[in-house]
Amino acid sequence: MRTIDDKIIYELNLATPTPSFRSAVDPRTHCAELYRQLNQTYSERGSLIKQCEDEARGRLKAMQGQMANKRDDPMFMKKLRSEQSKVRELQNEATIEEIIRERSLKVFEEKCRHFYKPPPKSE
């Protein structure tokens, strides 16, 4: 799902050709479409990460509720630690996602600022 971020420089070079090639390519249209793709991808990835994190937290909470009865069960404790690790990994993934998003949008802004201005964020 991070293909578009991995290829952001290539995509931006296609979207913003040198002046000699601008007659063949409309940079406004390309930049607008790239921005739409980036936002769609960020929305999809963000919701998937959040969904996975919510599910892992739910399982962890259920396991923590059982912990009083199963504290002496080594298999249960191993599963509990594994679930705790999953939650931490998903939190890290959300942080990584934010870093990737910021990096890609910064590069987008540098290359497309003369051709396309994204709409203001609605928060």
TrEMBL record:
Protein name: Protein MIX23
Listed Pfam families: MIX23
Entry's Gene Ontology cellular component terms: mitochondrial intermembrane space
Family the entry assigns: Belongs to the MIX23 family.
Transmembrane segments: none
Lineage of producing organism: Eukaryota, Metazoa, Ecdysozoa, Arthropoda, Crustacea
